[in-house]
Amino acid sequence: MWFKNLQIHRMTTPFEITAEELHQKLAEHAFRPCSSLETFTFGWVPPLGRHGSQLTHATNGYIMVCARKEEKVLPASVVNEIVAEKVADIEDTQARPVRTKERKGIREEVLQDLMPRAFSRSNYTFAYIDPHNGWLVVDAANTTKAEDLVSLLRKAIGQFPTQLPKVNGNPTDILTRWLSQHTPTHNFVIENQCELRDPDKEGGVIRCTRQDLMAEEVQSHLQAGKQVTKLAIEWNERLTAILADDLTVKRLRFLDVVQEEAENSYGDDVASCFDTDFALMTLELSRFIPALIEAFGGLSNEKITQPNG
Q1: How much is the pTM?
Q2: CB–CB of 239/284 below 8 Å?
Q3: Which domains does the chain have, with CATH numbers?
C-alpha cells in the first residue's frame, strides 16, 4: 500500500465531503467487470481489497480511494494475422484488391469476434485526499493514470477543481543549482542518479545511474550548459525518491526507520495493518510535500498551510 510514485494535485476549493458521503458518491461509479464486447471498464473498488467493503478508507482526516481498470488484451500481431488472411482470401476468390475502408471494416469484425475470448488484465490506482492541506496525491508513474483517476472523481462528486501545483521557482534551475553548487535545501541530500538534458530543442539527454554526481565527468556536462531534469534525493533520513522538474516524484521508498515504526505498531488483522501503513505514510508525506514545495520557492500566490506537529 506504500505509495511508490506521487502525482500531486492542488485542490482549488475546500473539500468538505466526509469519507462516508464520498463512499456513497463513489458507489454510483463502482467497478464492474468488462462485458463480452467491452474493451475496458473503470470504476472504484475498496482500498482494502477483499478485506473491505467501503470505497473509502479514512485515517486521521486523510481519505484513501482506489480505482480499478480492467482491459481486454488482444495482441496486435494476432489481429493483424487474421485480418491479413481474410484480406488475402477476398483478393484470391474475388480477384479484386481490398481497399482501405473495407480493410478497416474487416478489422472491426475481427475485433468483435475475438473480444469475447480475449484475456483481461487489471491495474489499480491508489490516491488519497488531504482536505486540511488541500492536496490530492495519486500513486501513479505517469500523468495519464492520475488524470484518469481525477476524471473519475469528478464524475462521482460533480465538481472537483484541481490543478498541478504552481511554484514561484523554476524547478529545473533549482535542481541544476543543487547539483552544480552542491547546495540542496530543506533537508534534501543528493543521491547517485540524475538526468541531464540540453536545453536546445534537439539537445541530447544523459542519464547517470549509480554515479558520483560530484565527479568531474558529471559536473562538466553542467558547465557545458546541460540542465537537471531528474535528481535522486534522500529527504530527512526518512525516504528516498527521484524528483522531476515537473514536480512529480518517482521511485519513492520509505526508509527502514519508517518501515520499522510501522511494523512495531501492527495489529492482528489486515485492516489494522493497512490503517497503520496509511497513517504513517500520510504523516511522512504531510511533511515531505510542503518541504518539496518550499524548496521550489513555495506555491505561487498562495501560502501553504503547515501540518500540525
Answers
A1: 0.86
A2: yes
A3: 7-73+120-163 (3.30.310), 76-116 (no CATH), 171-295 (no CATH)
